[in-house]
Design goal:
Elements lengths: L2 H25 L11 E4 L2 E3 L1 H28 L3 H23 L5 H21 L2
Antiparallel strand pairs: 1-2
Helix pairs in contact: 1-2, 2-4, 3-4
Protein name: Major facilitator superfamily (MFS) profile domain-containing protein
Organism: Micromonospora arborensis
Keywords: Membrane, Transmembrane, Transmembrane helix
């Protein structure tokens, strides 16, 4: 196998990580610097043009990363129970983040982000290795 082919997953994971970090940093811009709300989601939440750019970067990076993880899943050598637990943890995390946007329990996004982050921190290094 050529060196370029062996380093491809690592390079792609690095690019997706940069896209995700850029998207999150853009989403952290305070509401006063974002401009007007284009699409109101709930009381206290709305989508501005700046948010749309951050969300687009985050969506592209996360989707690309998910495709990389799924393609390399057979090579991760994780037992079925571990895969199920990681999938459950990630799904719970995403669900709590989405629910916090559309409902009254605002601070649950932190719990959801932590759950999703733990799952990502376990699976992504396994995906990036040779």
């Amino acid at each position: 196998m050529s060196r370029d082919a062996a380093d491809a997953p690592r390079t792609q994971v690095a690019i997706t990580a940069l896209l995700i970090v850029a998207g999150v940093l853009i989403l952290f811009i305070p509401a006063g610097g974002e401009g007007r709300v284009l699409v109101p989601l709930s009381a206290g939440h709305g989508l501005s043009a700046v948010d749309a750019v951050g969300a687009a970067l985050l969506a592209v990076g996360a989707t690309w990363l998910e495709v990389l993880v799924v393609r390399r899943l057979p090579h991760l050598a994780l037992p079925p129970r571990a895969l199920f637990a990681l999938g459950l943890l990630a799904g719970l995390g995403v669900g709590l983040v989405i629910a916090s946007v559309f409902s009254g329990f605002f601070w649950w996004w932190g719990v959801g982000a932590a759950a999703l982050g733990i799952a990502v921190l376990i699976v992504v290094p396994l995906t990036a290795r040779r």
